[in-house]
From TrEMBL:
Protein name as catalogued: D-alanine--D-alanine ligase
InterPro entries: ATP-grasp, ATP_grasp_subdomain_1, D_ala_D_ala, Dala_Dala_lig_C, PreATP-grasp_dom_sf
Gene (UniProt): ddl
Cofactor (UniProt): Mg(2+); Mn(2+)
Note accompanying the cofactor annotation: Binds 2 magnesium or manganese ions per subunit.
Coiled coil segments of this chain: none
EC number: 6.3.2.4
Amino acids binding Mg(2+) 2: E278, N280
Organism expressing this protein natively: Allocatelliglobosispora scoriae
Record-linked SUPFAM superfamilies: Glutathione synthetase ATP-binding domain-like (SSF56059), PreATP-grasp domain (SSF52440)
Keywords from the UniProt entry: ATP-binding, Cell shape, Cell wall biogenesis/degradation, Cytoplasm, Ligase, Magnesium, Manganese, Metal-binding, Nucleotide-binding, Peptidoglycan synthesis
Major location (coarse): cytoplasm
Subcellular location: Cytoplasm
Record GO cellular component, one term: cytoplasm
Residue stretches making up the ATP-grasp domain: 104-311
């Protein structure tokens, strides 16, 4: 992205619960690109977007929108209709990664470890009787369990449940963010995130980032409040475990058919094995986000990486 005629749009904001985080990501992407000489403009996703794309199409788009519009494939499908290239996975793959139960089904089919789970729509939860359903969940998965929205990010609506009495409240909290709850067996171990980038020579795994939240749970506050979480980049893992974690993350990225960039969240057990929790196609870019930490740990410049991804998108 070096020509004076080239211009990129950074889409951020939107109307999801993650709007504020998205705006922070967008501003950081803007600053990183401008630092390496890329002509970039930060735009919200609103009714003026499509006329702008038609009248003054950009060379490429970076999607810094979090939540449904940025991750469920819908906006990507619209960009495809407009013939506007963008960084990141296509609409089909993004839609697959956005829905956690679908993601986990693909992982299982590919032989990639992921915690055992049950996906429960709110309607079925009510029709079948909450108490009876929760009893069966505990019998099947044991305790503790993680309850989280089937679709969503940033830890919103997610709760670790250690005792049976706390499960109903966790389900209610989850249903405030989505109509389907994902309940999965809680994985004990080191919480790590592996960012994947592809600058044209195939996807590579950046150094894993270890996440140590002071409260023990990497929820919304732990992700975006300075001083609440400690990160180690690279993660404090044995060399062979680091290699294994990278291999599993790359396998997940490929199994879902993703492209350009993603972030794979995993738990590394005390035995050095790992299990995939979820996969994100629009990783955060804020000052406390994991992909920029991984880029720095790899000795790379965030602006140069983003510019390379834009070049790759524009060439498609």
């Amino acid at each position: 992205m070096t020509s004076s005629s080239e211009r990129v749009l950074i889409l951020a904001g939107g109307l999801s619960y993650e709007r504020d985080v998205s705006l922070r990501s967008g501003r950081r992407v803007l600053d990183a690109l401008k630092a390496v000489g890329v002509d970039a403009e930060l735009r919200d996703s609103d009714v003026t977007l499509l006329p702008t794309l038609r009248e003054d199409p950009p060379s490429a788009v970076i999607i810094a929108l979090h939540g449904a519009i940025g991750e469920d494939g819908s906006l990507r499908g619209v960009l495809d209709l407009c013939g506007v290239p963008y960084v990141g996975s296509d609409a089909r793959s993004a839609r697959l990664a956005w829905d956690k139960p679908s993601t986990k089904a693909v992982l299982v089919e590919a032989g990639i470890p992921t915690p055992e789970w049950v996906a429960l729509p709110h309607d079925r939860f009510s029709e079948l009787g909450a108490v009876a359903v929760l009893d069966r969940i505990v019998d099947r998965l044991g305790l503790p369990v993680m309850v989280k929205p089937a679709q969503g990010g940033s830890g919103l609506g997610a709760t670790v449940v250690h005792d049976k009495e706390s499960l109903p409240a966790a389900m209610v909290g989850c249903f405030a963010y989505d109509t389907t709850a994902l309940v999965e067996r809680f994985a004990v171990g080191v919480d790590v995130a592996v960012s994947i980038i592809d600058l044209g020579e195939g996807p590579i795994a950046l150094p894993a980032v270890e996440i140590v939240p002071s409260g023990g749970v990497y929820d919304y506050a732990a992700r975006y409040t300075a001083g609440v979480t400690t990160w180690h980049a690279p993660a404090r893992l044995a060399a062979d475990v680091s290699v294994h974690v990278a291999e599993v993350a790359l396998a997940a990225h490929k199994a879902l058919g993703l492209r350009d960039l993603s972030r794979v969240d995993l738990i590394v057990t005390p035995q050095g094995e790992c299990t995939v929790l979820e996969v994100n196609v629009a990783p955060g870019m804020t000052e406390t986000s994991l992909l920029p930490m991984a880029v720095q740990a790899a000795g790379l410049d965030l602006g140069e990486v983003l510019a390379g991804l834009l070049r790759r998108a524009a060439s498609r």
